[in-house]
Amino acid sequence: MVCLLLAIDVGNTNIMLGVYDGNNLQMCWRISTDRARTEDEYGVIIRNLFQQNGFQAECIQAMIISSVVPPLRYPLGRMAQKYFKVSPLIVGPGIKTGLNILMDNPQELGADRVVNAVGAIELYGGPLIIVDFGTATTFCAISEKSEYLGGAIAPGIQISTEALFQKAAKLPRVELIKPQKVIGKNTVESIQAGVIYGFVGNVDGIVRRMCNEFQHKPRVVATGGMAGLIASESETIEDVNYFLTLEGLRSIYEKNIPKRKVVE
Description:
- By secondary structure, the chain is of the alpha/beta class.
- It has seven helices and eleven strands.
- The radius of gyration is 19 Å and the shape is globular.
- The protein starts with a strand and ends in a 9-residue tail after the last helix.
């Protein structure tokens, strides 16, 4: 029987799931984050995804979970034991990452940013700037020596546009696609231009200022659901990797293999 690793990244908006056979990502899914779901609901959802894509749950011999939503750590941990018979590795204090964090308080650094940094260092090496388009837009700076220097956090695209719609009664919700022109001819085009090109300018502005604080020009890598849309217009983003977080989880798992045990 093939032994597979299930990597789970829990964000505030979405949960990303990836199945690895060694270093190879076999399949990935994205489901909505719901803090009210129970261990049984998550177990059924994930097992159904497996069944629909020809995977056997019994093939999962290890699991690693990264979460920025503390209330979901316990139900997902119970789900792993109940539905997959494995004790998951939870990214947090005491876990080997190989990352040297040069921040005032390293414990403040979110698990998602740690995992992204580990994945990016393995794939690209330093120096790096990682831009993650999630619920928040985060910018992480990695030195030539693969040290985590710090970063910046800005409101994400979705929550920014949601605030706009809630506070401006006459503005409709629109599909976030790139308009043909910056000068919109109607309300929908105007909102799309302001949001898309506004965030492009936001990202490029922050990245350029961060680059000025590096001794050597860093590689700029983007990840997250909106990465491709913004990167297509950005002058600073060089690579888009939608699976960066999953790759980081796989790498962290490999650094902690001796500690993993299958639940009997």
